[in-house]
Amino acid sequence: MDFDFSEDQVMIIDSARKFLEKECPKNKIRELKEDEKGYDPELWSRMAEMGWMGLILPEEYEGTGMDFFDLTILMEEMGRNILPAPFFDTVALCSLPILEYGTSEQKKRFLPKIACGEEIWTLALTEPSASYEPSGVELRATSLQEDYVLEGTKLFVPYANVADRLLVVARTSQEGITALIVDAGSQGIKTEVIPTTAHDKQCEVVFDKVRVPKDNVLGEVGKGWEIVEFLLQRVSVLKCAEMLGGAQFVLEMANSYAKERVQFDKPIGSFQAIQHKLAEVFINVEGLRRLVYEAAWNISTGSPSRLLTSMVKAKANEVYQQTCIQGVKVHGAIGFTEELDLSLYFLRTKASEFMLGDTGFHRERIAVELEDYQPLFMSV
Amino acid sequence: MDFDFSEDQVMIIDSARKFLEKECPKNKIRELKEDEKGYDPELWSRMAEMGWMGLILPEEYEGTGMDFFDLTILMEEMGRNILPAPFFDTVALCSLPILEYGTSEQKKRFLPKIACGEEIWTLALTEPSASYEPSGVELRATSLQEDYVLEGTKLFVPYANVADRLLVVARTSQEGITALIVDAGSQGIKTEVIPTTAHDKQCEVVFDKVRVPKDNVLGEVGKGWEIVEFLLQRVSVLKCAEMLGGAQFVLEMANSYAKERVQFDKPIGSFQAIQHKLAEVFINVEGLRRLVYEAAWNISTGSPSRLLTSMVKAKANEVYQQTCIQGVKVHGAIGFTEELDLSLYFLRTKASEFMLGDTGFHRERIAVELEDYQPLFMSV
Amino acid sequence: MDFKFGEKEEKLRKEIREFTKKELPPGWLSSMLEEESDDKEWAFAMSMSKKLAEKGWLTMSWPEEYGGKGASLWEQLVYSEEASYWGIPGVTMGIGGVDWVGPSLMMFGTAEQKNKYLPLIASGEPDGIWCTAYSEPNAGSDFAKIRTRAVREGDEYVINGQKIWTSAAHRARWCWLAVKTDPDAAKPHNGISVFVVDMKSKGITVRPLMNYVGLHIFNEVFFDDLRVPAANLVGKENNGWYQLMHSLGYERGSIAGRCYGYNKRILDELIVYTRGNGLFREREIRHKLADIAVELETQKVLGYETVWKMSKGDSPVYEPSRDKVFNDHILERLAMLGTEILGGYSQIDPLSRNCKWTKLNGHMEKLFWLFLGFAFAAGTDEVELNIVGQFGLKLPKSY
Amino acid sequence: MDFKFGEKEEKLRKEIREFTKKELPPGWLSSMLEEESDDKEWAFAMSMSKKLAEKGWLTMSWPEEYGGKGASLWEQLVYSEEASYWGIPGVTMGIGGVDWVGPSLMMFGTAEQKNKYLPLIASGEPDGIWCTAYSEPNAGSDFAKIRTRAVREGDEYVINGQKIWTSAAHRARWCWLAVKTDPDAAKPHNGISVFVVDMKSKGITVRPLMNYVGLHIFNEVFFDDLRVPAANLVGKENNGWYQLMHSLGYERGSIAGRCYGYNKRILDELIVYTRGNGLFREREIRHKLADIAVELETQKVLGYETVWKMSKGDSPVYEPSRDKVFNDHILERLAMLGTEILGGYSQIDPLSRNCKWTKLNGHMEKLFWLFLGFAFAAGTDEVELNIVGQFGLKLPKSY
């Protein structure tokens, strides 16, 4: 047992924090809300130069060969600064499945471009049912000679507006789901940005007879849901790390405000109603931190746990939202304004909650695990 | 709209409060916990003299002819003083169903004895399934000439140890449930007090070939569940009134303590953590009061609401328990002792919660109502 | 004890329902708290104010001489419930016009003030719209600390300072302004006065304070050598605190019904929505709906109790704070449940009226993003709980 | 970063599981917090203490010279987790014997004190049982206000006063007593001293304080001209506060594991119970179980973090308070859910061991009625949240 970061990890954290504070200040984040692309290509290039996109890709694909835990703490820093960029989407949602399930051909073809920041990728999974159950996948991929023909609608696809490629989860038979790598420029794809409150460039993507070569199947035909499970069981921890970083920053903001703001001749943080609120948030954020690290470490060391990952996501959903709500409450009316950075975080909680499963979804997954689990006291 | 009590009602409240404070002080309640009967026959007689047992029975049955609302506020006072006596069981659970469903024969035969305090009655409804659903009734009543023969076990039957008669809910056919008036002294009845934490004389009653004359059917054969519904939809409000009275007293205790107890040189009630806890309890108790009165008034005026009654019971369950828990918290360690009167109340919350349906049970009933309900905005 | 409305109230209820059916677009779902934000919606709200005035409902509780109908508190309650359930816009004439500016003027205003301002409000015309300026950057919960200063110079007062969180200032024709007239008063409460200010005066700057969903509700208002005729002082100089405390009572009759009506509509919408998409069949969801239904029924009767006390001539002390805390809890639960029910769709911007993916007109998202704002609008929960503790439970001061 | 226990710890874990299988009755479910109440259970607990001592586990973290094994904090954690999950009684040697009396004596005691008392505790014999007497009727959260007075007379101190909430006083051979030796000290914290008191001395009266379910856990202890040899002073006169603050640290290594082990067992029991009776199929119930499972996992890793900080030589400041608040929340949720699951059966008296209607050995009822008591045992949540606020968030004092 040892909860210390390695020297390399400390370096990742420090350099990421400095980089993001400098290169992506809050006013830039505000600008990007109104920007059509929703990210800054120049900043994207500099991130690639930092080696972030290839952080955990092997060197043969132009990566740095670090591990899942290292990526986790980098994501935490991005969450802390709510970096508006398709990083999670490209790296976590797409490059990791390719690394895990891709043919060596596919890896060689796609991963270096991701590592170098040349390509933006995203995952097209959810549909109007807005569900993460296999039954939610209705988009049809029909076999036609060397191709599949895609027909249907994907919803809440992050950054599809700027993506070069999409990882599309489609139904290839009644029971079979298949993951396909699709060129975003393919004929028949129509992408429209959905007006979300957070202005975070989630898209509706309509596939109208889109042809995809069969070579572009990722993993096995009919077994695409395994890839989604891979995302749900492992990659979601990276989203949780991002949420943890956000929650930590919001807590710090609220805590500073409670020390500065004076009412009735005292800092409001000296009133128990405020102080205890903050203390409860603090406890939960600390708990979330350890949970995220535990899950990430397990994945890093090759023993991922379906149960633990769902626990982490359920917890992250609750903690991030509550931290923001309590943060706004501590601020009072000022917390309600656009000018306060808190709103940048708060407005994004809904997308984070939804991404890879909301709380009810993961509670059900936990319950499914508990249903079969053999308690210690019965097993000895 | 008018929330004032009538003069008569004020008199009921005042005289009940004075009577109970004088005749049933807390040390007597403590004694009765250890008493085999669990109630004081002398006190019972004096209550009968006050006219309480016949409060809402018509004069022809030796009653006083007051209404359901009047009985409600009397129950509230009893709850305030946690009177240990089979009053609710005799009067609410049994005399009211007889009044509503009995033949004139039955009414004449049984009600005057209840009104005069001569007989103690109780309801034998729940069984080892501990459920208030019809499916929970498994005790069989088999027709045999002029009798029914009862076979089975009733559980959590309050004060069966001292009851003269039992209102037994039995299964007379696969689909049919029937209510029967049973002499507690009948051959084949074995009653055993269950050791409850509150020492409140709930019993296991085993029926071993107990013969009951068919004349003793209350209401129609096979339609006994209507009587249970009558209890669930109306009589339960009286239990809620009792709980309200208890919650009010516990709140007052905790509030007094918060004013008296000094820590860090201040009364603990001046710390927001304590004051806000109490304020929240206060708000909920006030809300419960109005709900109880609303439901009781509706019943009094002939427009009972299945929905509202379930709302009141669900709310009473939550509020009474929370009031006690917060009350103990405000008291700190002293709240945890036997010596503090609070424990007399707290320990009884579990029985009140269970009686005529716990929170989940009533939430489900509310949901069933909402499922069919036509919202205003669709109906105009 | 009597839990039934009288015939008069029931008749009024029916009339309002008929009115809404006729005057509101089909499927109308109110936008609450944000009608000031959008020009088109504001125009619609003003058109409704006018119609409500014609019906005699807008200021129904006022005496007839000032354009009212002398309606009872119970009628007012029914009106508030219904107006809020159906989402009739334009019922408040800005912030406070109907609720407290009018009643305060009746109590403390000069004959000239009454004759000038009351009919304007009662008419439902844009010239009767008010904003209320109390809070300042360093005087939120601790209102006695305001620093905006009015100094008498001949027949005028010269006002300098800044207000914040001034809702509707960008729509208002008049401002109901609290200022310091005696900064050296022994108790800070004793040096406060109230003025009527013409928003067209020179020396006023209104700066929008957009909220985080992009709605323009709040403003900062700056006063820079604003000159106000001495005749615009309301009541007595330095007596403002007591007048304001008094006037708080006026809105209480309408708040209870307004909150309940709004919440009831949301709950009804959620019930219908979940019945439609099958979510109601999930025990967890339908029990949460059931539980909120219990809270709403409780809120209703608690609010009635407050109105009942007022109807007997009692001045409610802690009850409005109690009702507000209770309402805040309900709003929070409705907001959480509503967005849980909407799931991924709760991400849609409630201001994107025409997005095909919007559910329930964006109402749930609006509630989710605004419920904290409602909560701050008239004092934070901490402040309200202090009042409940101090006056409801007679506990010592905790702040 | 490393979330894995070492081989040593895993081996210990296995040994303890084998031990429990051999030594505990089949189906044993611990009675926690109440072993002092019942003579028969107390005797069983003492027999287990002895066996734990023989295994070298009872005081495993102590140095070998005092009867320990010099075990690491991680081994201690594993031992605490397992002992608590399996409900091994007799692990604490009264209140504080193992957790803080021993370690404090090692730090502040004289050679004579160490030689006399430490082996007694380590032996697991009744003569090594301690009670701890800090609280007084007017000094609960505000401990510095204690008034029990010790006055030096020659080679003795004469002690007068009263303690309250003294757990295990009726079982203890010794008392770890905090008293005022200088009532006039400038700061009340500066006048406190700690003594070892023989519970067989003249001048001590123990009065049971039964709790509301009828368990005898707490006592009042009265001191009436009790004479204690000056040699029984622990550490320096008037230095008691600082010694106690220091000694609080010692128990922290075991508390995290103890709480987690206990809660995990309850959760496991509830899962098995609801799977058995079909309640698990109700989404509401199984989601509540799932949610508590999340909290337990969080509790586990938070507790590990505290131990990790200690293992690095840091003295945890706010972490124990944080862990305690977290545990209190979990206990409350477990208690509520457990009795919800039991329904009507939650009424059964947990002390009626042989009632045929008792479910889960009365464990859930016990938890329901006792969770508030656990919460008070080491400081109310308010006090703990103050500590988290002050030291974790560096906020100003709030009391």
Features:
heterotetramer; A: 380 residues; alpha+beta; Butyryl-Coa Dehydrogenase, subunit A, domain 1; Butyryl-CoA Dehydrogenase, subunit A, domain 2; Butyryl-CoA Dehydrogenase, subunit A, domain 3; four-stranded mixed beta sheet; four-stranded antiparallel beta sheet; 12 helices; 16% strand; C: 399 residues; 3 domains; 48% helix; globular
What features would you describe in this structure?
- The complex is a heterotetramer, with two copies of chain A (380 residues) and two copies of chain C (399 residues).
- Chain A has 380 residues and is of the alpha+beta class.
- Chain A has three domains: 7-119, Butyryl-Coa Dehydrogenase, subunit A, domain 1 (Orthogonal Bundle); 123-223, Beta Barrel (Butyryl-CoA Dehydrogenase, subunit A, domain 2); 225-379, Butyryl-CoA Dehydrogenase, subunit A, domain 3, CATH 1.20.140.10.
- Chain A has helices spanning 7-23, 26-34, 41-49, 68-80, 87-101, 104-115, 224-260, 272-300, 306-331, 342-354, 359-372, 376-379; strands at residues 121-124, 140-144, 147-158, 165-171, 177-183, 189-194, 202-213, 217-218, 262-263, 266-267.
- In chain A, strand 4 and strand 5 (177-183) form a beta hairpin.
- In chain A, helix 1 (7-23) packs parallel to helix 4 (68-80), helix 5 runs antiparallel to helix 6 and helix 9 runs antiparallel to helix 10 (342-354).
- Chain C is of the alpha+beta class and 399 residues long.
- In chain C, 48% of the residues lie in helices and 14% in strands.
- Chain C has a four-stranded mixed beta sheet, covered by helices on one side.
- Chain C is globular and about 70 Å long.
- In chain C, helix 1 packs parallel to helix 3 (73-86) and helix 4 (97-108) runs antiparallel to helix 6 (240-277).
- The longest helix of chain C has 38 residues, at 240-277.
- Chain C folds into three domains: 7-91, no CATH class; 130-239, Butyryl-CoA Dehydrogenase, subunit A, domain 2 (Beta Barrel); 254-392, Up-down Bundle (Butyryl-CoA Dehydrogenase, subunit A, domain 3), CATH 1.20.140.
- Chain C has ten helices and eight strands.
- Classes of the chains: A alpha+beta (380), C alpha+beta (399).
- At the B-C interface, helix 7, strand 10, helix 8, helix 9 and helix 11 of B face helix 1, helix 3, helix 6, helix 7 and helix 8 of C.
